[in-house]
Amino acid sequence: MNNLKKRIIALAAFMCVAVASFASCSSSKSSTDKADVAGDDVIAINTDANGNMVAAPLQDGSPESGILSIPEINAPDPVKPAEPETEYVPATDANGQAVTEYVPATDANGQAVTEAGGQVVTTALQVTQAVTVASTEDDYVDDTQMRYIFWLDIEKDIDYKFEGKFVKVSFKVKDNAAERVYPITIDPDLSTVGGKSLNRSVKVVNGAIGVGKQVEAQDVSNIDGPVIYADKVNANKGDTIDFYISFDKNPGVAAIMTWVTYDANAFEWLGIKPCGEFEPIANTRTQSGGTNGK
Questions:
Q1: pLDDT tens digits for range 39-63
Q2: What is the pLDDT of residues 130-171, one digit of tens each?
Q3: Handedness of CA 229, 34, 25, 193 (dihedral sign)
Q4: DSSP secondary structure string, 226-293?
Q5: Rounded CA gap, 46 and 123, in Å?
Q6: Strand 203-205 vs strand 227-230: parallel, antiparallel, or unpaired?
């Protein structure tokens, strides 16, 4: 087996893509000129003159395709209804008047206060009663959905060291989205051109979208070493927003598979685009016998 085929198998296995499935994947002649890359049911690949896979252009898709193994992402659990709480409220009589009772007055030492004639002094207190009320927390339950973002390029036998924002995800905030902070979870698999996993050496930071609620911008400046992280942005109902995934201190990669989870109750996934230093890399299309541009 030649080195190219070894790399293909190593990368395919690492990225959870069945090697046999490439027979059903899109060929190098499939369209990759769309402004936004929509999620297809198959993975688009590019081949060399001998029919070997050498690249997979940046693309996204849903796990229903069956080509990819779905990871067990550490996504937030649905929010469960909170337990009822007890409050004490003023008691009233049949006429709606506050109920009071008279209790002995005491001094600073806790001793009963008496008048000159020895009678105990009393003080009026409002009577309260315990009632069960709903918690101030709501009983919202999310609808967690997953999409994958995939890219691979081993044609030049190099690792690519792009920095900063590299993928822009477009979301439409639904008009009926609840006002809350929505976590956006990412779960990346990263590999070198030789099929070496970078997962243990690259830290991952999840993001969030605040709808009607404010979230602070993402800050990873205190993290040492390579880090891949999702955006933290604010939006309003009905907005179309750009949500970025970034890579700092990139040691060099040739393949990326990133699973993204989001709440479909609040957001519609519109598509992805490469950006920043990664854009010219992702937009290079490897065709039979050579490469060309967009």
A1: 444 677 777 787 777 888 898 988 7
A2: 766 554 456 678 899 999 898 989 888 899 999 999 999 999
A3: negative
A4: -EEEE-EEEE-TT-EEEEEEEEES---BSEEEEEEEEETTTEEEEEEEE-GGGHHHHTPEEETTEEE-
A5: 88
A6: parallel
